[in-house]
Amino acid sequence: MSFESLGLAPALLRALSEAGYEKPTPIQAAAIPVVLAGHDLMAAAQTGTGKTAAFSLPLLHKLASQPLREGRRPINALILTPTRELAAQVQENLRDYGKHLRISSTVIFGGVGMGNQLHALRRGVDIVVATPGRLIDHMQQRSVDLSKVDVLVLDEADRMLDMGFLPALKRIIAAVPAKRQTLLFSATFAPEIKALAQQFMRDPREVSTTPANTVATTITHRVHPVDAANKRDLLLHLLAQDSRRQTLVFSRTKHGADKLVRFLEVSGVRAAAIHGNKSQNARTRALSDFKSGRITVLVATDIAARGIDIDQLPVVINFDLPMVAEDYVHRIGRTGRAGSQGQAISLVSHEESGLLRDIRRLLKTDLEMVDIAGYEPSSPLRLDAGAPRPKQQQRQPREGGGGGGNRQGGNGGGRQGSGTGSRQGGGASGNAQGGRPAHRAHGHATPAGAEGAGSRNGGNRRRKRRGGPAATPNKA
Ligand code: AMP
Question: What is the set of domains in the chain, with CATH numbers?
Fold first, then answer.
């Protein structure tokens, strides 16, 4: 299968070849013909599968086939995303793919002034990429006219529902024409997604190239059991294996992310945090510094990380496990993208055993457990039904996209409208295999059903700190 055989416009083919895309990914091969044929589409696709191009390419193709209209153009396509970062990323992709076409797009999200957005909307654009909260603000101000929208895309629909955007979505959908094409992309087809589709789509075709809640097979998973108090040192130890390697580190909380960045900076690691309490400027800067290699470690919370797209990120480290197992899938979607190799490393303390158990059950895949010498936990991980969980049982309040509607948080100016933003700076140049510590695996945490595969090396064994790279076999 080639892009040519999908019948895409020559200007798109040129842009794709310039972007180095050789052939469609499975979701693209499955979705593009359906969209070109005008059907509504429900696509199960996780981040990293090439889903953005799966809807952007046929969308651009269709727009390119329409006669050029002079003067102010009505909004022809509306793409809704859960977060600002994803919105910005989608628009960046649209610009890349459409760079040889005369199709305009703009991005609309909160946390920044309305000025540029109003200006772009007044001028007229073909495609709007928006987060629901800020779009509703524009609807209330009557600064956006959605009455000519032909194609509506709900990107990461599961996430939008998860973030409480259902009421906002309903209002937006009511403002676009009933006669339209609707494309829904979601990591899973959970019952709420099916309900959404039933309510708002016409006879949708379903495509699914990755079973729900599975992860790319190019990712290797590794768990390092460690006491919570020693996680920071272990992280430093792992980072030191290849100090030039771009690493995305996940923290469960915003406060934790900030603390970790301070610790890393004091330890000589160039790092920045990206989370919902940061201004849009700070988030944009952190991401571009990471992409350009000015910083090597980006510490992110779950929501802020949505939409982060860095080519071939070799490793993602979970400093904390997420409270909700599905977030593990989203986190590690940042590595092993589009067929490249990736490594997902999780630092797991005894208190997080229950979360690890959830992840294993969700993934139904092996998670290799490896003790690092000098950092072995004083209490073993428990993977039975009574496994402990961190006290904070609730998900942290949703940030970034604006849980439940308008909240977009942050302030400051950020990139807006059709700015030029360079894509994929220098970025991930590291080597996934580079200089790993010598360690010995001690078996696998096996999927649901085979409980108790965790290490039983507990007791009050004290570690020798910074005991060199040699690893101890786990006595599982
Ligand atoms: P997405 O799932 O849309 O976030 O895309 C994941 C990554 O795959 C992005 O970096 C895209 O630029 C890249 N990508 C998308 N389609 C292709 C393709 N056909 N060939 C190579 N890379 C691709």
Answer: 4-208 (3.40.50.300), 219-369 (3.40.50.300)
